[in-house]
């Protein structure tokens, strides 16, 4: 009996030491995160794709926290509306970031205005929805250029400045489509997988230079963006399933909440931020059981529309009775709020 109790006491002490060690590590991590947390007051935040949608919501939040904001997008019209709403010292720069020289021009212009850049948010991108049989190589190239090369060009343009200052923050807005390939969104998924890989690799390599890289993984969000996506195939049917899914509260996240999660992740210096538990679960499942996830995606594909049309239409050109109803009204309201009209 003595030996048994002695063995139990020894195990109890060992468990206590382990738990104390875990608690001490958790406490040290919390102290470190608090000490290194980014305060947005008087910081300069450059947001690509910042004139509407998630980018605009991020701009609103960091401005509320005291940051100076620089927005970059292709459309001068959307940029001017966003800058007018935000007011203050907002700088709006129109540029096509698929061209490396344009990225350098944007960085130089922001530095010329504010003297420094503290945070880069790579949010620029496009979406093309349609079945595989109507997609062409040019579709993949166009989406890849918008969703991955724009981020790479901006990062390469800004790194010399961050290295010279000895600090910097980069947030790359990827997607759950960059963790799990989604039917009828192949070019988008390909580009987001590439962006996720780039972001994760940079997070490892740039840490020694005190440059923090955060990979953001959103799921569906009610930003109002569906009306501006490109569609191939059966335009009305493709738009219907996408917009309805985007409007359902159980499937999509409020854009303001999503932007708050992004800003919090940047402030905390997180390496990866999943905006929804469903997105995290899907990513974990794809890592543990990729075959099962692929089987599920096959079933999803069976219910999606079929067509041979290679003609491209925008979402707003593909409205139908189904998308104009009460279900789609949430997305319409978000579009009005987030400068997507």
UniProtKB/TrEMBL annotation:
The keyword DNA damage does not apply. SMART domains: PKS_KR (SM00822). Keywords: Oxidoreductase. GO terms for molecular function: oxidoreductase activity. Transmembrane segments: none annotated. Pfam families: adh_short. One of its GO terms (cellular component) is membrane. The keyword Disulfide bond does not apply. It comes from the Bacteria. InterPro entries: KR_dom, NAD(P)-bd_dom_sf, Sc_DH/Rdtase_CS, SDR_fam. Residues 43-224 form the Ketoreductase domain. Belongs to the short-chain dehydrogenases/reductases (SDR) family. This is SDR family NAD(P)-dependent oxidoreductase. It comes from Dyadobacter sp. 676. The lineage of its organism: Bacteria, Pseudomonadati, Bacteroidota, Cytophagia, Cytophagales.
């Amino acid at each position: 009996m003595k030996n048994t109790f002695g063995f139990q006491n020894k195990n109890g002490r060992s468990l206590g030491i382990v738990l104390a060690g875990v608690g001490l590590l958790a406490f040290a991590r919390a102290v470190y995160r608090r000490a290194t947390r980014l305060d947005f007051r008087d910081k300069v935040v450059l947001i690509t794709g910042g004139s509407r949608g998630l980018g605009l919501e991020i701009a609103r939040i960091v401005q509320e926290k005291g940051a100076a904001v620089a927005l970059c997008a292709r459309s001068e019209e959307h940029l001017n509306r966003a800058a007018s709403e935000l007011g203050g010292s907002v700088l709006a720069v129109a540029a096509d970031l698929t061209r490396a020289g344009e990225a350098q021009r944007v960085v130089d212009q922001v530095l010329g205005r504010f003297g420094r850049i503290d945070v880069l948010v790579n949010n620029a991108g496009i979406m093309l929805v349609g079945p595989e049989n109507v997609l062409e190589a040019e579709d993949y190239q166009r989406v890849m250029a918008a969703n991955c090369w724009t981020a790479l060009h901006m990062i390469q343009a800004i790194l010399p400045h961050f290295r010279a200052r000895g600090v910097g923050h980069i947030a790359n807005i990827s997607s759950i489509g960059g963790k799990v390939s989604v039917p009828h969104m192949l070019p988008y998924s390909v580009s987001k997988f590439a962006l996720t890989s780039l972001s994760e690799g940079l997070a490892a390599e740039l840490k020694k230079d005190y440059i923090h890289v955060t990979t953001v993984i959103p799921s569906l969000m009610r930003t109002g963006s569906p009306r501006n996506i490109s569609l191939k195939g059966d335009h009305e049917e493709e738009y219907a399933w996408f917009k309805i899914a985007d409007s359902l509260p159980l499937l999509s996240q409020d854009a303001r909440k999503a932007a708050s999660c992004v800003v919090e992740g940047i402030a905390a210096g997180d390496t990866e931020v999943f905006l929804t538990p469903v997105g995290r679960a899907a990513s974990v499942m794809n890592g543990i059981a990729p075959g099962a996830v692929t089987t599920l995606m096959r079933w999803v594909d069976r219910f999606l529309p079929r067509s041979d049309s290679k003609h491209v239409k925008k979402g707003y050109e593909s409205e139908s009775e189904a998308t104009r109803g009460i279900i789609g009204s949430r997305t319409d309201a978000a579009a009005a709020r987030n400068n997507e009209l």
